[in-house]
């Protein structure tokens, strides 16, 4: 795999090796530090930046192990909409703030519904923010969404944060999720794409307030989690 990645780096001319057989080049290229060269370039869709396959399988597994520790301390719960309907997505958070919803409305809270502070955001997750967010601020919330079979998220804007100049960074793990992107106001034409395990998406700049949602997940599309399902993490600056 390393070799395939190095070959594609070589093909794209990101490093200037002129001579030698491909085998020799691979030898030399293994000396180049892994990061920087190994990540995919983003594809832009309506101003969102989609990095397909940002995380390799080992990184996805490491992230999942870190998330298991977070969820052991801050268990997933089913938020109620302000209208009293349970959401199909189960959630929890890490960071100074977590996102909660109940009869009182949607908001950020410094405590889990059980009354405890949220666990810290794992460094494996912060590293992704640092690589793609383009901001010097640190994320104050990592919202963890778990989609079981049949779960979805209706079209919405992320607007419970104070500063819309700060991006939201989304990381997908597990089964494929059909992500729909709309417009700055409700309605109008939309575009959809499948978000796959290891994909990263940056929702920032002029696209920060576009409507978006998850129509459905495709069960059985990823072996990462033994019982299936999809996890989406969104990193946010809240204040
Ligand atoms: O699950 C996703 O990919 C999107 C989640 C989302 O939009 C949110 O949590 O606000
Ligand atoms: Fe959102």
UniProtKB/TrEMBL annotation:
Q: Which residues bind substrate?
A: 99, 106-108, 160, 186
Where is it found, in Gene Ontology cellular component terms? Answer: cytoplasm
Q: Which Gene3D superfamilies match?
A: Alpha-ketoglutarate-dependent dioxygenase AlkB-like (2.60.120.590)
Q: Which cofactor does it need?
A: Fe(2+)
Biological process annotations from GO? oxidative RNA demethylation
InterPro entries membership: Alkb, AlkB-like, AlkB-like_sf, Oxoglu/Fe-dep_dioxygenase_dom
GO molecular function per UniProt: broad specificity oxidative DNA demethylase activity; ferrous iron binding; oxidative RNA demethylase activity
Please tell me where Fe cation binds in this chain. Answer: 156, 158, 212
The residues the record assigns to binding 2-oxoglutarate are 145-147, 230-236
The record places domain Fe2OG dioxygenase at 138-239
Going by the UniProt record, its keywords in alphabetical order are: Dioxygenase, Iron, Metal-binding, Oxidoreductase
Q: Can you quote the record's cofactor note?
A: Binds 1 Fe(2+) ion per subunit.
Q: Does the keyword Iron apply?
A: yes
Instruction: Report the superkingdom from the record.
Output: Bacteria
Q: What is this protein called?
A: Fe2OG dioxygenase domain-containing protein
Species annotation: Thioclava pacifica DSM 10166
């Amino acid at each position: 795999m390393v070799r395939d990645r190095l070959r594609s780096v070589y093909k794209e001319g990101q490093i200037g090796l002129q001579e030698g057989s491909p085998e020799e080049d691979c030898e030399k290229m293994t000396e180049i530090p892994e990061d920087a060269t190994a990540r995919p370039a983003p594809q832009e869709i309506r101003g969102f930046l989609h990095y397909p396959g940002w995380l390799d399988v080992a990184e996805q597994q490491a992230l999942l192990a870190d998330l298991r520790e977070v969820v052991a301390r801050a268990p997933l719960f089913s938020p109620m909409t302000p209208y009293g309907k349970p959401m199909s997505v189960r959630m929890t958070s890490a960071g100074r703030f977590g996102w909660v919803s109940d009869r009182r409305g949607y908001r950020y809270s410094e405590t889990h519904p059980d009354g405890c502070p949220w666990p810290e955001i794992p460094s494996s997750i912060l590293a992704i923010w640092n690589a793609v967010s383009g901001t010097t601020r640190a994320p104050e919330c990592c919202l963890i969404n778990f989609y079981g079979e049949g779960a979805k998220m209706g079209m919405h804007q992320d607007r419970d944060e104070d500063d819309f100049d700060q991006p939201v960074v989304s990381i997908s793990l597990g089964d494929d999720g059909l992500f729909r992107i709309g417009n700055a106001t409700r309605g109008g034409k939309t575009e959809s794409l499948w978000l796959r395990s290891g994909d990263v998406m940056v929702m920032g700049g002029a696209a920060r307030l576009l409507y978006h949602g998850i129509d459905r997940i495709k069960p059985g599309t990823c072996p990462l989690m033994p019982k299936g399902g999809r996890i989406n993490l969104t990193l946010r600056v809240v204040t």
